[in-house]
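Run log, item B.
One chain of 256 residues. Sequence copied directly from the ordering sheet:
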Amino acid sequence: MSTSEMNTSDLREHILMLFNTSLSDHSLQRMQEKMQLLHRGSYYLDLQQDASAWALVDQQRLQGALAMANTHVRLLIALMEMLLEEICSCRQDLNHSLHNPVNTELVVETVRMLHKHLKDFDTRDCRNLGPLNLDNHLIIGSGQQSVSRVNASLSFRPPVVFDQLRSHAKATSAHLFWKVIGEQPPEPHQMYELQVKIMHPFVGEQGLEQYAVQGLGFTKRNLIPERFYQFSIKRLDSYNLVYAVWVDTLVLKTTC
């Protein structure tokens, strides 16, 4: 039975069922976690050829492709945010309808729109963006040489966060560990950028140090006892990076 064919009693039962399933607190939390994952992830431009194709790419056209892809990612994330806002708005309206006299036709329309938004939110996944339609060839032919079109796609990699349970400081060192959310097994050869910053440095103290690290851990030595240090971790920027705004931070105090 469609929602348009329901009587008032059936409609109420359907709404109550929604609050126990798709609109439950747990379901809403999962949708919010999905949005957080999309916001904090990194997006890359991939070529659907072998790795040697990157050496033939025209750099000016590559920058244009990266800018277009960046806009594409931002629009998709904004769309997902809008869908989640609409779902929350429908949830609020339906909750109101359970406790107050309302226009049944309006409630039916709200339920219909809710189902549409839920389906769109569930099926539109920014983590698998697929092929990207580029306006120009990325590889410029020379003379009469014919160059086939390079197919490009957008890929997603989940965010990096410190493992706060394992990371700890001693008197003159900090043992740092991080992880990639939801990743099993770890990405091979992935490089990370680690920054070490002493908080409120005294005159003559080096305020910021930066390291390129492969793997999911690092020990920083030669620290000063009883001082606060701020550490930050992110994926190391690469030539095909499209969008990445998330940097995780951790503050530790060295012991005496």
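Observations after the first pass:
- The CA atoms of residues 19 and 25 lie 8 Å apart.
- The chain has two domains: 3-154, 160-253.
Flagged for discussion on Thursday.
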